[in-house]
UniProtKB/TrEMBL annotation:
One Pfam family named in its UniProt record: MarR_2
High-level lineage: Bacteria, Pseudomonadati, Pseudomonadota, Alphaproteobacteria, Acetobacterales
Keyword Transcription regulation recorded: yes
Protein name: MarR family transcriptional regulator
Origin species: Siccirubricoccus deserti
InterPro entries in the cross-refs: HTH_MarR-typ (IPR000835), MarR/SlyA-like (IPR039422), WH-like_DNA-bd_sf (IPR036388), WH_DNA-bd_sf (IPR036390)
Alphabetized GO MF terms: DNA binding; DNA-binding transcription factor activity
Length: 162
């Protein structure tokens, strides 16, 4: 739509619509860059995300069902990803001490070593992505994106059937 064209009713300005496209495009492009950087390490972005979640769980690992919930994946998809990571020696399954029906997923020593390498790769990527931005600009971006995330979470909670 040309800049001088009449605006649709209720539209306050292009930025309210543009932000969604920008957030999506930035995320998509960062994912592509991340995938390219992870490929030499034999880890996909989804596998890296699983390993990152496990790294936050401490030495006791995490129940497979909880991991699926955090990843926003089904139990079968999560199980398949764990199978591949287990075959690569990066994680192991262990029966829960209190409930033998529950599988806990733990990162192996080899998995921790690759996590350390991937964290460094992530830092390098972040440096590329944030190149030329001042600390003030980064703080503003952080504040704005955090507010958007909070608003989205609030909207999602409001839509849940109560």
């Amino acid at each position: 739509m040309p800049p001088d064209a009449p605006q649709p009713a209720g539209r306050r300005g292009s930025s309210e619509f543009r932000i969604g496209f920008l957030v999506h495009d930035v995320s998509r492009l960062r994912q592509i860059l991340f995938d390219q950087a992870m490929r030499p390490h034999g880890v996909t972005r989804a596998q890296w995300w699983l390993l990152a979640q496990l790294s936050r769980s401490g030495e006791g690992g995490m129940a497979q069902a909880e991991l699926a919930r955090l990843l926003g994946l089904g139990k079968v998809a999560t199980g398949s990803m764990i199978d591949r990571l287990e075959a690569a020696g990066l994680v192991r399954r262990e029966a829960d001490a209190l409930d033998r029906r529950v599988n806990r997923i733990l990162v192996t020593a080899e998995g921790r070593a690759i996590q350390e390498r991937l964290v460094e790769v992530g830092r390098q990527l972040n440096g590329q992505v944030m190149e030329g931005l001042s600390p003030k600009e980064l703080a503003t971006a952080d504040r704005v994106l955090t507010a958007l995330k909070r608003n989205l979470r609030r909207a999602l909670r409001e839509e849940e059937p109560g």
